[in-house]
Amino acid sequence: MNQVEQAVRAAIVEILPDLPAAEITRDKSLRDLGADSVDRVEIISLLLHRLERAEPISNFAHIPDIGALIEHLSRGNS
C-alpha cells in the first residue's frame, strides 16, 4: 500500500469513524461507504491538506470510486 492509499484510508476512517476499515476497497465509492456530501468534502479537503495539494474540490466530483481517487491523487506524488 503506497502513501496516497494510506492517506485515503486514514482520511476515510477519520471522517467516518464507525466504518470498519475492511470495507474500504478500491471498487467502492465514498457514497457506497456511507459518506454524505459534507463527509465527502471533508475527506477530500483533509487529503488535499495532508498531501500538500492545491486543487479545486470540484475536480473530484466525477471520480467514481476509491481506486480512481487514489490514482487521481497519485499523479505528481510518485
From TrEMBL:
Keyword line: Phosphopantetheine, Phosphoprotein
Keyword Phosphoprotein among record annotations: yes
Keyword Cytoplasm in record: no
Every Carrier domain range: 1-77
SUPFAM superfamilies: ACP-like
A Pfam family the protein falls into: PP-binding
Gene Ontology MF term list: phosphopantetheine binding
InterPro entries: ACP-like_sf, PKS_PP-bd, PP-bd_ACP
Name recorded for this polypeptide: Polyketide biosynthesis acyl carrier protein
Highest taxon of the lineage: Bacteria
Naturally occurring in which organism (per UniProt): Saccharopolyspora shandongensis
